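Q: C-alpha cells for this one, please.
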Amino acid sequence: MEILVCVKQVPETSKVEVDPVTGVLKRDGVDSKMNPYDLYALETALRIKEEVGGTVKVISMGPPQAAEVIKEAYMMGADAGVLLSDRKFAGSDVLATAYTLSQGVRKMGNIDLILCGKQTTDGDTAQVGPEMAEYLAMPHIANVIKIEKIKDASLIVEMDMPHMVEVAEIQCPCLLTVEKDIYQPRLPSYKKKLSTKDWDISMFSLHDFADQNEKNYGLNGSPTQVERIFPPAVNIDKEIWTGAGVELADKLTSKLKELKFV
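A: Here is the predicted structure, written as C-alpha cells:
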C-alpha cells in the first residue's frame, strides 16, 4: 500500500508574533517542531505498513527549514519525503494550503491512502485534510479513532462523532484525518537517524506543478482575509479581601453584580 502522511512544522511556543499587515505568523527565529497531531498520523501509517506492507511517504509545505520534520519522519520509519517550498506559497490560508498540497500529491503519482493529523496547533482549523480530499476528488473520513480492518481495496474505520462512534467502510484511494487516541507515536530512532542522515528530500516549487497560476497560491489564492489582529490584553488587576465567610460571600456577590457576571 502506498501511504502518504501530511506533516507540518509548527512553532514550539505559543508566544509567536503576528505580522500586522498580512496577518500571518512570524516564524523566523522561532524554535519549531513537528505538529503533534501529525505524529499520530505517521504512527498510523507505519502500523499499516507493518501489517500489510508498502511504503510510507511524507509531504510538507513550508520554507526550506521545514525539511527538519521530514528528517524526523525518516527517523521514525518513513521511506521518502517531499517538501513544497516556494515564496509564492507564503501566507496561504487553509484553502490555498489544501490546494497547494493537492498539487504536490498529484505530482507524486499514485497514492492509496493519505493520512493527516486532526489539526495543527498553530491554526486549529481541522480543515486542510478534508479540503485536500475535495481537490483530489477522493473519499475522506475525519475524526478516525481506529482502523478496524484493512482490505485489498478499502478500509473499515471507526470515527468519533459528537454523540456516537460510527463505523464506516471507505474505498481506496482515500484520505483520513486521525485523532490523537488512535495510537501512541513511537520515538525517533537514533539508529535510523544515522542510517537516514544522507537521504534525499524531494523539493517541489510552483514550477513543478501542473497548475502554475500564481493566483491560486499563497496570499493571492487565499479567500480568507484578516481585517485586524492584535495580542490579547493581559489583565493582572487583583483584590485581596479578608473577613468572615458571610462577609466575603457578600463582597463576592456584589463584585460579580458590579462586573455584570450575574
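A few notes: The chain has a mean pLDDT of 91. The longest strand covers residues 140-150.
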